[in-house]
Amino acid sequence: MVERLTVVHLARLPLGTSYTRGGLRPKVVAVTLTAGSKVHVRDREVSLPRSALFLPLQGALEAGRLRVAPACPHAAELADELLQARGGPSGAESRGAGRHGDLLVVVSLALWWQGVARM
To answer: Which of 10, 34, 90, 113 could make an S-S bridge to 74, C-beta 3.0–4.6 Å?
Structure first.
């Protein structure tokens, strides 16, 4: 969960976890990351170019505005993912072999979605 530019909570759910657990379903938006150049939104489905996904995160990092709450679970893992990420020619992240990027992606999605919600 990201509130404004502060990461307040991160969770790693087990693979195969149902989206309908704990009333989560009404808040779920399906996002497909693509190599395209245009964002498409239809109902609760978004087709999002990877290059666009990371722009809000990159901007927040470069401006020194992204914060992580001291009690945020997985904060150290997020920091590691951020340190390991490198921008490619399209602005998408790349990681070394055996590196995870799930926390980096979920924070990027949250920041991107907040930008969309403000429009």
So the answer is: 10
Cα angle value 58/108/118 (rounded, 5°): 90
- Sort 69 into a burial class: Cβ within 10 Å, 0-12 / 13-18 / 19+: middle
Residue matched to tokens 């087990």: 14
Question: What gap in Å lies between CA 56 and CA 11, rounded to an integer?
Answer: 21
Q: What is the pTM of this model?
A: 0.79
Number of domains in the chain: 1
Distances (CA, A) of 69 to 59, 94, 95: 19, 25, 25
Question: What residues make up the domain containing 40?
Answer: 2-117
